[in-house]
Amino acid sequence: MPPQESSLAQGPPPHASDQNLQHVIREIRQQLETLRAEHCAILKRIALVRQTLNGLADVFGGDLIKGEVQDCLSLQTPPKSGSSRGLTEACRQLLIESTVPLTVHQLCRQMQERYPQALAGSYRPAASLSVILRRLVDYGEAQNHVDEKGTRTWRWAADARKSDGFRG
Question: What architecture does CATH give domain 78-168?
Answer without folding.
Answer: Orthogonal Bundle (1.10)
